Amino acid sequence: MVLLNRHPEHRQPLASADAVSLGVAGATEAEGFLGLRENHAETPQHSLPALAAELGIGALHVKDEGQRLGLGSFKALGGSYAVIRLVLEEAAKRLGRTVDVTELNEPGVRAIAAGMTFVCATDGNHGRSVAQGAGLVGARSVVFVHAGVSGERVAAIARFGAEMVRVDGGYDHSVRQAAEVAVARGWTVVSDTSWPGYERIPGLVMQGYTVIVREALRHLPKPPTHVFLQAGVGGFAAAIAGHLAIVLGEARPMVTVVEPARAACIFATAEAGRPVKIAHDRPTVMAMLECHEPSPVAWRVLARVGDAFMTVEEDDAVAVMNRLARPQGGDPAIVSGESGGAGLAGLIRAAASPDTRAALGLDEGSRVLIINTEGATDPGRYAELVGMVPDDVLLQTAES
């Protein structure tokens, strides 16, 4: 299903708070923080001309976040960035002066960080980022995970020193429980979703994601005409689309937000014209996108800069994983996790429908940017769905 944005705020300027968090200055600050990380490297960006020709478009580029900061997903940019910012702000408050990011390892700053506890709820990737950020600064982290998070993903978070808390129910329930416990114990919630009265920290998380756009635009021969962005609560899609709107203005690309049909809370919100919570029905293979209530901040952005909303099926996501693992026509092989290729799944589905192509303005001149938001964050599940282990997939590109 495809729904064009009919919201009255569509194509209006971003709210002032969102323009600040997603603007050039904020992205520059986030990139500056990132440059100080020991394992920082820009993630690869691939051109897939064979698949572009098959889809009847001019160019297809895939920004591969599966190798970001050793965490395997774009989430590495958000939670850890917010944790570091919050530690610096607390240190500045207590020391009575500005504290620079280069001072994070100073004894006085680390002593302050050691007294801080950061808490979050996660499907897997955001929790890794928060736990890693807390570990970098010497703070404590507590991560709430719901029943659907695999043991392999839980273990991957725990390796960063986080205390893990299992809760019944789904992602939205874990978010509420994490927030309740944090309030009771004086901990700091670092969430990638927002709620009334809690917007600034999710804004910082989204600000971290703008680094992806800056890197992508630096290496594209021309700005994209279209982007397809996957969504859970919507923070990633809003961050990318919002920054593109700010830096490209009227030349910004057509933004299509893609969700699993089984967890399409942004689609339902676009239909209703306001944030709505959808019922939890069947789980989706796109586990990192299995969210049933949108982030209000994300929707505030997407109402303005999201141009279309669509859903994809379970088989679409698995087919993309396999297509990227076994490319044709000389295209590079890419490891894409269950949720990572949802944007590409949306493009493939859209390109196959003459009506959808016309609605989105897709043609042989279109330049499409896709972001592979995760690699094999659960290698066992990846091998089960693809029939290859991730290292063997990457070996194809290394040998070509």
Automatic annotation (TrEMBL):
KW Lyase (keyword) present: yes
Keywords: Lyase, Pyridoxal phosphate
InterPro entries named in the record: DiNH2opropionate_NH3_lyase (IPR010081), TrpB-like_PALP (IPR001926), TrpB-like_PALP_sf (IPR036052)
CDD domains: Trp-synth-beta_II
Positions of the Tryptophan synthase beta chain-like PALP domain: 39-373
CC cofactor: pyridoxal 5'-phosphate
EC number: 4.3.1.15
Annotated protein name in UniProt: Diaminopropionate ammonia-lyase
Source organism of this protein record: Mesorhizobium waimense
Origin organism lineage: Bacteria, Pseudomonadati, Pseudomonadota, Alphaproteobacteria, Hyphomicrobiales
